[in-house]
């Protein structure tokens, strides 16, 4: 695996869901790794992502979006045939503020798949993967395997 903290610029093709989910490109997320149920995404620090202008700390919603995205990507790459997923549950522990002016990384691993659910663990960190900014567990629904959501049956009001 490539060192996710190498701070090397990534090619445009390494953007997360490039062109599919526009806000991922707007936030500047870049895929470092995405295969076999494991994903790593880099989010370069930018002033417009700051939640507190006095200290330069990233907004908590940005951290949450990064973790949700890397977790979904891990779920998708864990499938034999990639398919869309939807977040069912996302629980995040924000352990400390991200250090201002440093890139943020998130790593996720899909540790269990059932017929319709993917279970994922993720962490967010900066220079040291052991020094966590946030940690999460989540579940994702595999959407293509559901088939029709409901069948509408006509009712006979005369009986």
Structural write-up:
This protein is an alpha+beta fold and 159 residues long. The protein has a single domain, classed as Thiol Ester Dehydrase, Chain A (Roll). It contains 2 helices and 8 strands. The strands form 2 sheets. A 6-stranded antiparallel β-sheet has the order 1-2-6-7-8-5, with helices on one face. The longest helix has 18 residues, at 60-77. The radius of gyration is 18 Å and the shape is elongated.
- The overall average pLDDT, rounded, is 82
Helix content: 10-25%
CATH architecture: Roll
Give the structural class: alpha+beta
The CATH class name reads Alpha Beta
Number of domains: 1
Report the strand count.
8
Spell the H/E element sequence. HEEEEHEEEE
Low-confidence parts, pLDDT < 50 over ≥5 residues? Answer: 1-16, 147-153
Task: Name the features.
159 residues, alpha+beta, Thiol Ester Dehydrase, Chain A, two-stranded antiparallel ribbon, 2 helices, disordered N terminus
Give the structure's gist in a few sentences.
With 159 residues, this protein is of the alpha+beta class.
Summarize the SSE layout with pairings.
Layout: H1 22-27, E1 30-35, E2 38-43, E3 50-52, E4 57-58, H2 60-77, E5 85-94, E6 104-113, E7 117-125, E8 132-142
Antiparallel strand pairs: 1-2, 2-6, 3-4, 5-8, 6-7, 7-8
């Amino acid at each position: 695996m490539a060192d996710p903290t190498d701070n090397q610029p990534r090619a445009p093709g390494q953007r997360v869901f490039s062109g599919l989910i526009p806000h991922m490109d707007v936030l500047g997320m870049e895929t470092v790794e995405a295969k076999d149920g494991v994903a790593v995404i880099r989010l370069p620090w930018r002033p417009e992502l700051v939640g507190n202008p006095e200290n330069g700390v990233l907004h908590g919603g940005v951290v949450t979006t990064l973790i949700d995205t890397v977790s979904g990507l891990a779920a998708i790459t864990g499938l034999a045939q990639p398919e869309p997923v939807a977040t069912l549950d996302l629980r995040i522990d924000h352990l400390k503020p991200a250090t201002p002016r440093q890139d943020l990384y998130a790593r996720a691993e899909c540790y269990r798949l059932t017929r319709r659910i993917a279970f994922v663990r993720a962490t967010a960190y900066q220079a040291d993967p052991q020094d966590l900014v946030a940690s999460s567990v989540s579940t994702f629904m595999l959407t293509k395997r559901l088939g029709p959501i409901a069948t509408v049956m006509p009712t006979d009001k005369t009986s």
